[in-house]
User: Fold proline dehydrogenase from Alkalicoccus daliensis.
Amino acid sequence: MITRDFFLFLAKNDFMKDKARKWGPKFGAKSVIAGETIEEAMQTAKELNEKGLKVTVDHLGEFVYNKEEAMDAADYCIRTLEGMEESGVDCNLSLKLTQLGLDIDKELCISNMRAILDTAKKYNNFVRIDMEDYSHIEATFEVLEELRKTHDNVGPAIQAYLFRSEQDVEALKGMNIRLMKGAYNESPEVAFKDQKEIDNNYINIIKRHMRNGSYAAVATHDHKIIAEVKKFAEENGISKDQFEFQMLYGFRSELQEEIAAEGFKMRVYVPFGNDWYGYFMRRLAERPQNITFAVRGVLTNK
Assistant:
């Protein structure tokens, strides 16, 4: 039986990652990744906007250990923001701090982020810091704290499967946060392992953040949780302007359009680039039944 841990193991396998870059986005990845270039990402964003959907794009990449590569990644993020402005799309930027040098030098990462946020501010845009594995959480919050001294157009993601998430949400009161279940293989010493416990904590932190009057980006494909958030907002007089739903590109597209048609903000997370392998493996880990995407990809890319 193919398990979640199997895909998470593959996500960190350097040999497979290197081969994947050479193969290109095959094995089903093309159905959940918007090509490899900024132009392709912007075209996908336009198509989604035409359906009433908002977008955030992510140039895939993480765990960079070379300064030049980190600087190049920052420049690519800036060019992506410029591409959004030129295309006129309703689109934000999502990124990972390890791609911008967090594991090399925190000050380098902060400098890269400031350059990105300056560009985003010029275009009245917003940047989302994706949360990575547990070992990077403290450093991520340290960088965020420094950035928030000069920029208010940046916010983090919080993962509900971590024991600390409720405390983190309370500490980040007033901030625009993406709230999600989590996609890394963490130790039982720091994370819930039971799905019901994760779901309960997820609902708890969503309601806590919304009750605080803070903006919540609810990132889930779970229709039961979506329904509960809608009901909670209605019963507590919370405006539709105070929250949005988020889903991944290529997953539950019909539901995305239904939510937007109901007058809720629905944002689609659109990854692009050639460093797609780790992202794709984590998506399969979340929903191993999506192995059918991989089989379809093999059949259509012979």
